[in-house]
């Protein structure tokens, strides 16, 4: 088992056992490491301590849920988000496939793909010359299946396996690098309503949650919560289009294409990263 796999396994264990608040020794034993070695490894790959991650799973998430009634109406017209944390320190621009491109079924388009290790698990990434067109967790669906679905949507495209070319899509999230792009483009295929929902998701601030009802209201269609839920579930680009920030009106997690445990893991990781960035900013003052 490599380091990435150990960290993912440890995070999944903490998600599953958050109610019992497992200590460092318990979690480190689960991944067959000493407490000292595990602590250093976890901090290196996740950017925070195991204790801080566990806190983000429990107390911090509870606080954020209490604030989740904030309406998205004030930011509904925003097309992206610039921020100071790792996840959105870039400007994210979403472009939809035009009707003409859709009719040509990807003819003449070269799609490059690759699979990458991250603290949250293996991630499949595919890009076109215009941006990221697919991103998904491999542990929920195999890379071959994700590629097959993509090929079905773009049957006349040419596909190349080149993880070096797709690496930027995950490094921009998980690693701070001066070489990371200042802006990042997403190239998606969807109905007008789906694209509108995905644009709305980009306006949800990091570490905050919005309900399906909030998004429906922001789109001027307050009775379309179910349709919003279907569009959220069809999100083709995990993490960059943050469907993990959408919960039920009651505060329950709701569904997630990649599984509820993965949704909890992503939310806790994002909260912890946001907290780390805030701490670093305070220290620099």
Automatic annotation (TrEMBL):
SMART domains: HTH_ARAC. It comes from the Bacteria. The keyword Lyase does not apply. Transmembrane segments: none annotated. Pfam families: DNA_binding_1, HTH_18. Its EC number is 2.1.1.63. The keyword 4Fe-4S does not apply. InterPro entries: Homeodomain-like_sf, HTH_AraC, MethylDNA_cys_MeTrfase_AS, MethylDNA_cys_MeTrfase_DNA-bd, MethylDNA_cys_MeTrfase_DNAb, MGMT_N_sf, WH-like_DNA-bd_sf. It catalyses: a 4-O-methyl-thymidine in DNA + L-cysteinyl-[protein] = a thymidine in DNA + S-methyl-L-cysteinyl-[protein]; a 6-O-methyl-2'-deoxyguanosine in DNA + L-cysteinyl-[protein] = S-methyl-L-cysteinyl-[protein] + a 2'-deoxyguanosine in DNA. One of its GO terms (molecular function) is DNA-binding transcription factor activity. Residues 8-105 form the HTH araC/xylS-type domain. GO terms for biological process: DNA repair; methylation. Keywords: DNA damage, DNA repair, Methyltransferase, Transcription, Transcription regulation, Transferase. Belongs to the MGMT family. This is methylated-DNA--[protein]-cysteine S-methyltransferase.
């Amino acid at each position: 088992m490599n380091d990435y796999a150990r960290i993912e396994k440890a995070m999944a264990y903490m998600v599953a056992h958050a109610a019992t608040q497992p200590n460092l020794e318990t979690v480190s034993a689960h991944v067959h490491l000493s407490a000292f070695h595990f602590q250093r490894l976890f901090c290196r790959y996740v950017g925070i301590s195991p204790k801080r991650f566990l806190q983000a799973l429990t107390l911090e998430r509870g606080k954020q849920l209490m604030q989740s009634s904030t309406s998205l109406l004030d930011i509904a017209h925003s097309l992206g988000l610039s921020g100071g944390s790792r996840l959105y320190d870039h400007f994210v621009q979403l472009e939809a496939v035009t009707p003409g491109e859709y009719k040509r079924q990807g003819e003449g388009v070269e799609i490059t793909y690759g699979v990458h290790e991250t603290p949250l698990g293996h991630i499949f990434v595919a890009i076109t010359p215009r941006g990221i067109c697919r991103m998904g967790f491999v542990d929920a669906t195999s890379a071959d299946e994700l590629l097959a679905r993509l090929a079905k949507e773009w049957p006349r495209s040419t596909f190349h396996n080149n993880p070096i070319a797709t690496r930027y899509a995950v490094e921009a999230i998980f690693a701070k690098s001066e070489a990371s792009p200042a802006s990042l483009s997403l190239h998606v295929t969807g109905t007008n309503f789906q694209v509108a929902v995905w644009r709305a998701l980009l306006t949800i601030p990091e570490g905050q949650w919005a309900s399906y009802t909030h998004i429906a209201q922001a789109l001027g269609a307050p009775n379309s919560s179910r349709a919003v839920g279907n569009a959220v579930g069809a999100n083709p680009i995990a993490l960059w289009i943050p469907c993990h920030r959408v919960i039920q009106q009651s505060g329950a997690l709701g569904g997630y294409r990649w599984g509820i445990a993965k949704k909890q893991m992503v939310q806790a990781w994002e909260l912890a990263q946001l907290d780390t960035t805030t701490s670093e900013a305070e220290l620099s003052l």
